[in-house]
From TrEMBL:
Domain RNase H type-1 stretches: 1-142
Subunit structure: Monomer.
GO molecular function: magnesium ion binding; nucleic acid binding; RNA-DNA hybrid ribonuclease activity
Names of required cofactors: Mg(2+)
Record's keyword annotation contains Oxidoreductase: no
Function according to Swiss-Prot or TrEMBL: Endonuclease that specifically degrades the RNA of RNA-DNA hybrids.
Record organism: Candidatus Cytomitobacter indipagum
Domain of life the protein comes from: Bacteria
Record-given protein name: Ribonuclease H
EC top class named in words: hydrolase
Intracellular or extracellular location(s): Cytoplasm
Cofactor annotation comment: Binds 1 Mg(2+) ion per subunit. May bind a second metal ion at a regulatory site, or after substrate binding.
GO CC terms, sorted: cytoplasm
GO terms (BP aspect): DNA replication, removal of RNA primer
Length: 150
């Protein structure tokens, strides 16, 4: 059975109140988790959704994982930029500090032990599971609440 992680982040204002959510799916089983932060950005919430989802998944399985998200920032960061940032002491090619360095460094500790396949989906489109996660992230930001659903 293939494992799927669907993630999303949301921000009411940018910066503003933020929420993140992920769904871990294996066959018919679906777990949804979300959380929030007071003063944050959309990119931080996208990163936090992925970090939280990967940490949760690592407790469930060591198999490969398909990750679906609408954040090209996070996908490009993982697949293209992060290795160079590390080599450059967490600076960009323009020699400026990497934004959200704390979260990128946390992600860098998790990813090497995993077999991940990233799948980009356009946000707010007809991707049923991503739409559910998007709503959970927006709800977390709006209501200042975390949830766990099965």
């Amino acid at each position: 059975m293939t494992w799927h992680l669907i993630t999303d982040g949301s921000c009411l204002g940018n910066p503003g109140r933020g929420g993140w959510a992920f769904m871990l799916q294996n066959g018919e089983n679906k777990d949804i988790h979300s959380g929030y932060e007071e003063k944050t950005t959309n990119n931080r919430m996208e990163l936090q959704a992925l970090i939280s989802g990967l940490k949760y998944f690592s407790q469930q399985s060591k198999e490969s994982l398909d990750v679906t998200m609408d954040s090209q920032y996070v996908i490009n960061g993982v697949k293209s930029w992060m290795a160079n940032w590390k080599r450059n002491n967490w600076q960009t090619a323009a020699k400026t500090p990497v934004k959200n360095k704390d979260l990128w460094m946390e992600l860098d500790k998790i990813i090497p032990s995993m077999s991940l396949n990233f799948i980009w989906t356009k946000g707010h489109q007809d991707h049923e599971l991503h739409n559910i996660v998007d709503e959970a992230a927006r709800c977390a930001a709006d209501k200042h609440a975390s949830c766990t659903c099965k």
